[in-house]
Amino acid sequence: MSYFLGIDVSTTGAKAILVDEDGAVIASHNEPHPISTPRPLWSEQNPADWWNGVSKSIREVLKHASVDDIYGVGLTGQMHSLVCLDKDGKVLRPAILWNDQRTQTECDDITARVGADKLVRITGNRALTGFTAPKILWIRKHEPEIYAQIRRVLVAKDYIRYRLTGEFGTDVNEASGMLLMDVARRDWSDEVLAALEIPSRWLPEVHEGHAITGFISAEAAEITGLRVGIPVVAGGGDQAAQAVGVGAVESGVIALTVGTSGVVFAPTDHYAFEPQGRLMALCHSVPDRWHFMGVTLSAAGSLQWYRNTLAAGVSYDDLTAEAAGIPAGSEGLQFLPYLSGERTPYPDPLARGAFIGLTTRHTRAHMTRAVLEGVAFSLRDVFELIKVTNPQIKQVRVSGGGANSPLWRQIFADVLNVPLVTVDATEGAAYGAALLVGLSAGVFGSVEALTKIVRTGEESKPGGQAIEYADRYAVYQTLYPTLKSTFAALARG
What is the SS3 assignment for 25? Predict the structure, then answer.
């Protein structure tokens, strides 16, 4: 039996997993790496830490299988980062990460240069501070001595590809998250590159997610323990690989991830974009597929903040058990989960969290349930946009830490008014990266077969609370427009 090796370079660590031909996980190891915030709004990492972590994780999982049985390697990781290399392939400065917020001026410049409507039409997205393109412009303006030495720009996982194979490559999903791609054509946009004056020769070759992009070099083999010549496939960004890992590869099968943030990932079989850019529109990491994506920045993160701040020492299970005894709608109490600003449908870093409607009759149990419901309402905002562009929703596959709560799953099912199923896939994006290797090997037969490989679990169907939540959601929709100017005023103070 062959094994497929998935590697995930996340914000917090470098994970490696081994998956067999039946889709079962044989071994997994994660090596943490540090993050640096040298100035306000900055977020950076040293690519050498990624490589050291990947190498250690690979060696750990190889203890559970013969290296001769490894068919190939798939890559995934945090998206939108920027790694700058010189003519010798050396890293010029720390990588700027997806959650770095220093580039709002550059985003405004990109919009002015390309045009707001044209930018969304070509790239599928508006200019956001997390994307790669504004980071390049920031370096040009603020670090001209570094900019003058740049010969290659990569994202996190593609730097690992370079260290493994010596090749400069990326996948269509990751490339479309750089704000430099013609997403409909699945290749770099000459028009956008010209408008931003970024040399096309700096960019890696673009591949479909299951395509072989290179082979393990002798140097990498010595460091990682892999065999020289093992193929390395293109892979995908973390959310696209996560979607592959839960079987969300067909139109109508939606992936809902309830982690620190909440992500709604909706595959499509054709390119489309949300005209105002409120949803991200990217290439999927499987062939002939695209996807919409919307993000609630504080999903399970809201519940974590609530517990740590107002219920320290109380378990999540105890909190949700209390909340289960409160009627739907929390007796008029609502919660806005904008603790970190918001992304979809309000790209507003000044948005703030709030409890609204508090009275003397409300207890901790009411507040807990209001947090659960507020996050669900926020994610319904995303679903409402997706239904306009991709109206057929067959199934929602839910994963992430928040999906462990039966109460929260039922609230999501009622608020969204769709059935939810859990999935037997706990290794996240790394698992999807490994499955893309299996797709490359022909083991899984087709893209559609990926939907069946991932085993689904418990189903939560909309119940009698769906109508009540529809009324409560209508009230929720009025809150941000009413409070937007107040949030801005508070941010100034």
Answer: strand
As to burial, measured by CB atoms within 10 angstroms (0-12 exposed, 13-18 middle, 19+ buried), residue 35 is middle
Going by C-alpha positions, the residue among 148, 173, 159 that lies closest to residue 54 is 159
* pLDDT for residue 101: 87
Task: Please give the Cα distance from 129 to 136 (Å, whole number).
Answer: 11
Q: Encoding tokens for residue 96?
A: 């700027």
Contact indicator for 43, 468 with CB cutoff of 8 Å: no
* Cβ count near 82 (within 10 Å): 27
pLDDT tens, 25-57?
999 999 999 999 999 889 999 999 999 999 999
**How many degrees, rounded to 5, is the angle at CA 99 between CA 101 and CA 16?**
160
Provide the 10 A C-beta neighbour count for residue 433: 37
Task: For residue 256, list its beta bridge partners.
Answer: 264, 398
Q: What is the pLDDT of residues 312-327, one digit of tens each?
A: 999 999 999 999 999 9
Sign of CA pseudo-dihedral 355, 359, 364, 368: negative
Distance CA 56, CA 29 (A): 9
Contact 286, 447 (CB under 8 A): yes
The residues annotated as belonging to the active site are 238
* Distance (Å, whole) CA 90 – CA 333: 55
Nearest CA to 217 out of 371, 25, 89 is that of 89
Query: Is the omega angle on the peptide bond into residue 345 within 30 degrees of 0, that is, cis?
Result: yes
Position 379: which residue type?
A: L
Domains, the chain, with CATH or none: 3-236 (3.30.420.40), 248-493 (3.30.420.40)
CB 237 within 8 A of CB 177: yes
Say whether pLDDT at 448 is over 80: no
- What is 349-417 written as a DSSP string? TT---EEES--TT--HHHHHHHHHHHHHHHHHHHHHHHHHHS----EEEEESGGGG-HHHHHHHHHHHT
Answering whether pTM is above 0.85, one says yes
Q: Under a CB-based contact definition with an 8 Å cutoff, are residues 186 and 283 in contact?
A: yes
